[in-house]
Amino acid sequence: MNTHENNTLLDFRSDTITRPTAAMRQAMADAIVGDDQYGEDPTVNRLEALAAQMVGKEAAVYVPSGTMGNVSAMMARCGRGDEAILGDESHIYWFESGSPAALGGITQFILPTEVDGTIDPTRIELAIRVDRSGYPRTQVICIENTHNRRSGRVLPLSYMREVAQISSRHNVPVHLDGARIFNAAAALGVGVPEITAHVDSVQFCLSKALAAPVGSVVAGSADFIERVRRQRKLLGGAMRQAGVIAAAGIVALETMVDRLPEDHVRAKRLAASLARIAGVTLDPEGVQTNIVVFQVDGSIDQTELAERLKERGLLVSNYGAVGLRMVTHVDVDDADVDKALDIIGSTVPTMLEGSRVRAAD
Ligand code: TLP
Q1: Reported pTM
Q2: Residue whose CA is closest, atom 3 of ligand 1?
Q3: Domains in the chain: ranges and CATH
């Protein structure tokens, strides 16, 4: 049965576009389910236990999306008017509809994101408020690993340790937006718990590089996860026979983690070849996982380029000032990378040449 549409398009927009594998569909069909709001869905319970164990935390809760995972974790830390420390290039700040403010009344202390995806630890420490009635209370420090808008960069373990030290000095917990935490672990060659040991809570996605159709997980201490469950309910994210989708999440965790290095190898090859195309700028060294962000010569209209690539059958994401983004995933292979490179390798230089001719006229 062909369950995939648009097979002719080379879809590098995101690793979210993957379809569930045959094993996932089978597991979904076979899932034993119950009402999760009574705690009685055995498949959801199994997913949560497996997820907690795999990320080295006491407990975990299944949520419909990464966005809900992040905001429910933040709302479990912050009351209205409390403050979260966030990077200015973080996914939470850019792409989550302002949910911490809109839903939680959470104020945000925004700090610059460095090229490598870190936030300067000194700035973090200085941003933590002293206790004064006129100040919001700093209740959480949010970091992101791998870093989406920073070309999938992995935060070094030494950095995670440093942030953890600041956190314990000031008693302000750290939340990790680890949408692609398994990619980070694969790139570092360590188990996820070695990374998450340095944070109090983590959100990770089953629906990104791991190819499940739906869902994310928030993990942390048992007491904290109970508070996240309350927020999930408040946000309308508590489900019923969710085992039907959780079953695919279990298959994702059991079968899709070990293949991630394949995506990283493809992304690095893509980056190395892109860097050689006239009119393209990127630092191939900065590509460590499955995300490739690149810039094009200022004379080329990026939006028009994305359109032209689409006309030729290649889909990429337009990340505005940051550049164009391509993501490798289970549904693209080596031949697809070659085809994508051919298309970009002929389109960008042609547009560059066109702009030079126009400038000379
Ligand atoms: N990222 C998506 C888009 O929203 C950009 C993508 O295509 O990469 N944290 C990070 C670091 C993410 O990359 C994403 C999704 C999320 C959180 C939110 O997850 P969802 O989309 O499930 O709400």
Answers
A1: 0.96
A2: 95
A3: 10-16+259-360 (3.90.1150.10), 22-255 (3.40.640.10)
